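Structure first, sequence second, as always.
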């Protein structure tokens, strides 16, 4: 640490956060440093000092208290003390209460006849060998909400597979044979959400899916990709190769950067990037002419691409709760009036079916 630097400790939700700053740092600078450590947006952080830290008399060893305004956060909520993930805990409790369901001859025969393997909530720790015996016949493999720890090389034998549902298991980056999985040329749906869990050893370390390989781009038939509720920090550049992708769900992760290649996914209809760490969006979003719904709640966004409304002419749903984007900023964007007409028409249609709605823009933009 340099001679002119000061080291302080910010206490938040019962845990100390050490921070090193220069004496001329502003409180805004401090809040921006605290953002990735707490998930609380700067406007939701309550700190005492209003001038530069040096002028306010902050010196080495000083302790500050941080209070986060409820609801004004990004990512998957305020980062509190280390604790077991509620989602993982509920899944673990449910799986623990179930008995292992055996695979018999009748099951294999049924799988071959229907092409569907439905083994969600079967207390599985591995994909049964009987699945591979039925490989040529399988179109759907649903093994959600188990404790499966590995997707092995044999996955490439499911040559006719169209839907692969792997949600709520114990999968991590290295436990999925991505090279073999990427050979599934007919796969249209890949769902791999909620794969965060704690190790069973004494360390109880959090293990999660925190990255996706570039080879994901080989799944060129993919139409629906759900990687939500993991710990991803970015999406691979090769996602731009998924030209048939219509739905992308990547909400509740730690994504701080969105590759420009997302603009090559020109079939996209819905994107959910809510509850991440995004501070800006690539201008290539303007290429998504079929985009109808864009979910961006709980991010650190301050603006949108200036041509979003004028180029994405089918966009009618835009959610911006708990971002820094204001209504005034939205109204200044080219194409706002046409977007607002589409949005109002959608709400009116919902009202016609007795679905409660509002004709005021209330997708989360600040009124000021």
């Amino acid at each position: 640490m340099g001679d002119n630097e000061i080291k302080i400790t910010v206490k938040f939700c019962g845990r100390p956060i050490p921070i090193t700053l220069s004496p001329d740092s502003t409180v805004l600078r401090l809040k921006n440093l605290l953002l990735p450590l707490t998930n609380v947006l700067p406007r939701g952080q309550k700190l005492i000092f209003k001038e530069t830290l040096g002028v306010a008399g902050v010196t080495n060893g000083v302790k500050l208290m941080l209070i986060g305004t409820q609801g004004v956060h990004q990512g998957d909520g305020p980062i509190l003390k280390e604790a077991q993930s509620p989602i993982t805990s509920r899944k673990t409790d449910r799986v623990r209460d179930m008995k292992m369901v055996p695979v018999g001859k009748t099951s294999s025969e049924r799988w071959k006849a229907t092409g569907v393997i439905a083994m969600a909530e079967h207390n599985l720790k591995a994909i049964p060998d009987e699945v591979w015996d039925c490989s040529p016949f399988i179109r759907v493999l649903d093994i959600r909400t188990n404790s499966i720890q590995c997707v092995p090389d044999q996955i490439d034998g499911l040559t006719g597979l169209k839907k692969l549902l792997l949600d709520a298991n114990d999968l991590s980056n290295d436990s999925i044979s991505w090279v073999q999985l990427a050979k599934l040329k007919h796969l249209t749906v890949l769902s791999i959400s909620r794969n965060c869990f704690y190790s069973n050893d004494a360390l109880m370390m959090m293990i999660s899916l925190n990255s996706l390989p570039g080879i994901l781009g080989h799944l060129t038939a993919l139409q629906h990709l759900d990687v939500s509720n993991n710990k991803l920090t970015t999406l691979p550049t090769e996602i731009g190769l998924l030209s048939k992708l219509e739905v992308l769900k990547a909400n509740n992760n730690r994504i701080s950067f969105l590759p420009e290649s997302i603009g090559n996914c020109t079939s996209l209809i819905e994107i959910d990037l809510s509850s991440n760490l995004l501070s800006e969006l690539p201008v290539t979003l303007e290429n998504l002419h079929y985009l109808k719904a864009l979910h961006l709640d709980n991010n650190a966004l301050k603006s949108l691409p200036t041509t979003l409304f004028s180029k994405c002419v089918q966009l009618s749903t835009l959610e911006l709760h708990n971002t820094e984007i204001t209504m005034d900023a939205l109204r200044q964007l080219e194409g706002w009036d046409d977007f607002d007409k589409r949005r109002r028409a959608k709400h009116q249609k919902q009202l016609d079916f007795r679905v409660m709605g509002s004709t005021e823009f209330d997708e989360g933009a600040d009124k000021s």
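Margin note: The chain is about 20% helix and 15% strand.
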